[in-house]
Structure formats: structure tokens, C-alpha cells
Amino acid sequence: MKTLIKIILILAVVSFYSCEEELTELNVNPNGVDPSVVNPNLVLPTVIAQTANPYLTRNFEGHYAGVMQYIQKSGWSGPENDFDWVGGQGWGGWYNNLRNARHLYERAEAQGMEFQMGAALVMRAFNFGFITDTWGDAPYTMAIKAVEGEQENYFPVFDTQETIYRGIINELKEANTLLSKSPAQYSGISPVADLLYAGDPAKWRKFANSLMLRYYMRVSDKMPEFARAGIEEIVANPGTYPIFTSNADDAAMAYGGTSNSDSWPRNKAYEDTGESFERVQLCAGIRDVLMGYNDPRLGVWFNPVRIQIQVSEEYGGDVIVGGVRYLHPDHMEANNLVVYTPETWVADNDAGKTLVDTNRFVGAPIAYNLSDASSYNLNPSPIQGGPNVHASALADIYQLPSHPMLRARMISYAEVCFILAEAARKGWNVGSQQEWYEKGITASFSTWGVSNNLAAYMSQPGIVYDGSLEQIIEQKWIANWTIAHESWADWRRTGLPEMRWGTIGIRPNPPLRLQYDPNEASRNLRNYQDAISRLVQTPFTAQDGNDSAWSKIWLLQGTGKPY
């Protein structure tokens, strides 16, 4: 992981390469590395880190973590707390990294380094998968070709989602072939340059095929026979298409923790005030589910409140005694306060009542307030972006710059198990849905160090498998903590897990995509217009037109999901 320290220098090299203008000799840095001869091992860590880091940040504390009700934020928090996804979001960072991946592939091909070629294809597929999952149609076949100089390359068409998904699956198949040799058959592998698997081609091969499972399931409602054939082929031929078989296979980048650039986001080691850490707080949505099952993962991810609130007749008014804040029922009534309950909080909030949460773990519900969560649960010192003694902050491990559990996870063995459980439930020939479901829960418990609680957890009503898709997706949602984008993708195509949200949001329902960056309209108008013409409006798009966060991408059109 010390290699991460070199990333800034590597980025300078790649930025030099990606510039589309013709450089004269006067612009050449005599001390820099010529991109045309750079060793692929100097580019590989950049491609990995520039994929894993932004993916984690968006999943751990960004739009998707909010909409999927893992977290809420105290201060400057519209996208996470009230569906304020209005306004275009740029994909420039993802395409910049795709230029890096292209350069990695081309340099590896020139050097006959098939391992690096395979890794480049896996990361390319992952980045394009994220783009189309998030925005919909996007440049793919003509993307990142401006360096070739053809006029059409400066104004790339937006390929359909179907084209992109088929394309990235084919690229992953190609990667599977490139990565099928023994380590001794490859030249130039540098374990220190590989931030995921330390130069192990077998693990990269599993990564490629596990990603194929993800994307086959993604299109399973739109192209069911294609998806079924693909998943059954992979499962039936483990020698040809090996997939993750344990948590040790997870595509999860560790952090070095030697500087802020290679440390877990929101850590306190490189931020004196800690305000950034305090902003990320538990959401009531997942809290309600985890507490309902007495799920031990809750205490790994979040801290209990520093001061718990109780409603009691023992003390009058509003007092703190022995580290507990007591509210008398008469005080509650006089101040229009009501105890939070999952079933009634939306109606109580709409009736103008102030919610009071008396649990040990407390999270603000989503879309209950148009401002932010800084004052939630009678916080005595509400400061935008500040702490709340009556709400649950992230667990202490998330203050650290690095920890064995703190990894930028892109896809996990647990996710693979739940994908195959869903495939089995569809009647596809991949094994037992119950076994895959139970393996998924087991893998997640192992990941978060709570395996000692597994037997008791698995014996509970609601956890014992009943054959329903609801259970599979709910447990997959829980296991995908820090991979919220994948949970959002599942919710969009299945309408699961079932969630409650308040009525005081930007729109009545959660968003389905990101709007295109306005620059796309100004720089690539015709292709942008073609792309948005293929979007389908919903009852929540009147203010925006076709290019709305509430419009349906191809993946959702005609499915009736999620609304």
C-alpha cells in the first residue's frame, strides 16, 4: 500500500498523456516519464485507486448511501437527506480514469504483459458499468478516442445501455481468457503495483467473472434468456469461469494510512476538528431493520448515542440524570413531542409533531426535514455539520486512517452469494437458493467480525429463509454497507428492500439516475439530445423534462419497477 504514495506523481504522468493538444518540445518535462514508454506497473495502481476511492466515497457517505438509508448527514446534506439530486453531475473523473485504463492496456499490449492487459479490461468494464448504471446511455464504443484525432471522436455517440452491458460482459470474458495462465507464464508482474491482489492473476480472473454475474443479473428483467444463459454457463464451468468462493477473494482495496491521500475518508488522523467525521450519521431506515433482528453488525458500523433519551414519569420536565435524558409524558404532550416508531413516524411528522427517538442507536429518517439532521432528536447544541449527542455517529474504527475492516470494496463474495440465491429463485440451474442465501449472510458476518453471533441470528423468524425475494434483497442490502450504489441498483430493478421515507423531500419518491452534466448539452448537443429522447418520464419529472433524475433508463423501462 505504500505504492499509493506514488499516485500523485503517476497522475502527473497520465495527465500528460491524456492532454489532447499537440505538445512541443518546450512543453516536455526532461525529468518526467515519457507516457509512450512508461512501464505499465506505474499506471496500474492509479487505475485501481482512481476507481476504488471515488466508488467508496459515493457509497459510504454520498448520494447512494443516503437514498438507500444507510446514512444521513448533519449539514449541507440535500442529496443524502431529501432526494435533492436536481442538477447535472459530471462523469469526467470516470472517463479520465478510463483514459488511464486505455493507456495501461496499450502499454501492456506493446510489452506483451497479458496480466496487466487483463487487469485493465476488468477496471475498464467496472468503470463503464458504473457510468451506465448511474446515468443511463453514455459514450462507450466511441469514448476516449479523441487522441486518435478523427472528428467523430470529439463528439462521441451515447450508446444504449444494452450495447454497453453486452460490451462490458464481452470485455470481462476477454479478461478471463487473458488471466487464465499461471503466474509463472506472465512477464512483468509487480505485486506492489497491484493494490487489490498483489499480482495474483487467479484472483483477478475471479473478479472478472464475479462482475459478469453482477451485470447479467442487472439485465435479467430486460434480457432474461441472455442473463440466464450467461449465469448458468459461469456456474456450470468453474474451471473456465472461476468466481469468488470466499471473503479472501473480495475486490477490496486496503488503505495505507500514511497520509490523507491514502487513508479512509472521514478519518480524524488528518483532520484536527473532526467535523467532517461527525457529519455522517446513522439513518433510521437501516437502523430499524438491524435492531429488529438484533443484528450485531449495527454496533460495528455505528456507535450508540452518547446520551440516550427516555420517556418516564420518574422525573418532571426535561432533565439529565445519570447520563440519561428523561422526558416526562406531560412535557412531551405540552411540546408536541412524539416517540419515533417505524410504522407511524411519517404521519406523525406530517402532523407537525417533533420526533423523539428513545433507542440506544438513533438515526434520522430520510426526507423528514428539508434542512439537515443537525437538530434531530432534540439535539441540545444543533450546529450544522456538528455532533449530536442524541444520534449515532460512525463507529470509532471509521475515525482511523486504516484498519483491516476499512477497505474500498467494489464487489464481495457475499454479493456473489446473493446474486446466485436470486438466480436459483428464478429457477435457474445454479444450486440451492437457501444455501446461497445462508452463505451470503455467513460471509457478511465473517467480513465484519461477528461470526460468533451467526447461529442465533440465523435461527430468528424473518431470517430463516422462506423462499422470498424480499429476504434475499434485504440481506444483500444489509451486507452491501459501503457498496450502496449496488443496493440502489437492486432497489431500482426490484422495488426492494421495502423502505419508508418522509413526504418532505424534493420529490415524493427517490431518484432513478443522475442527470447528465450540462456541459454535455453544450459540447455534444446532438448526441445528448438523442440520449435523453430515449429516457421515459415518470410522474415526478414535470419540472425537468426528459433529462431528469426521476426519468427511467432503458434498464427500468417496461418493468413497472420501482414505481
What key attributes describe this structure?
563 residues, globular, mainly alpha, three-stranded mixed β-sheet, two-stranded antiparallel ribbon, Four Helix Bundle (Hemerythrin (Met), subunit A), 42% helix, Serine Threonine Protein Phosphatase 5, Tetratricopeptide repeat
What does this entry look like structurally?
With 563 residues, the protein is mainly alpha-helical. It has 3 domains: 2-82 and 108-262, Serine Threonine Protein Phosphatase 5, Tetratricopeptide repeat; 275-399, no CATH class; 410-521, Up-down Bundle (Four Helix Bundle (Hemerythrin (Met), subunit A)), CATH 1.20.120.840. 42% of the residues lie in helices and 6% in strands. The chain is built from 21 helices and 9 strands. β7 (337-339), α14 and β8 form a beta-alpha-beta unit. α7 packs antiparallel against α8.
Give the integer mean of the pLDDT values.
93
Examine the secondary-structure arrangement and name the CATH architecture of the largest domain.
Alpha Horseshoe
Report strand %.
Answer: 5-15%
CATH class of the largest domain: Mainly Alpha
Largest sheet: 3 strands, mixed
* End-to-end CA span: 44 Å
Count of extended strands: 9
Number of domains: 3
Structural class: mainly alpha
Q: Which parts are unreliable, with pLDDT below 50 for 5 consecutive residues or more? A: 1-27
